[in-house]
Write a structure and sequence with these properties.
Strand content: 5-15%
Strand order of the largest sheet: 1-2
Structural class: alpha+beta
Distance between the termini: 26 Å
Radius of gyration: 14 Å
Number of helices: 3
Number of domains: 1
Largest sheet: 2 strands, antiparallel
Shape: globular
Number of strands: 2
């Protein structure tokens, strides 16, 4: 098994301006849900974008839902 090159990964993907903006949007969605009492730290729930930000989705309330971590992480496998 090869070691993961995190520095390269950040340089080539996570550090790009578009990805930084998307990360800020995801963090903002989580903060709004937490302030509304929909999620709490350590509760195993995540804020899911029905239409992903990468595919033109937004942080509008109608595009967000609260799901379990497992549900959110396996969503891309479908």
């Amino acid at each position: 098994m090869r070691d993961r090159d995190y520095a390269k990964e950040y340089r080539e993907y996570h550090g790009k301006p578009e990805q930084i903006k998307n990360r800020a949007k995801r963090n903002s969605a989580r903060r709004k849900a937490a302030n509304s009492g929909l999620v709490r730290k350590g509760d195993g729930m995540e804020v899911d974008h029905k239409r992903p930000l990468s595919k033109g989705g937004s942080n509008h309330r109608s595009n967000l839902r609260i799901v379990t971590r497992k549900t959110n992480r396996t969503k891309g496998d479908r």
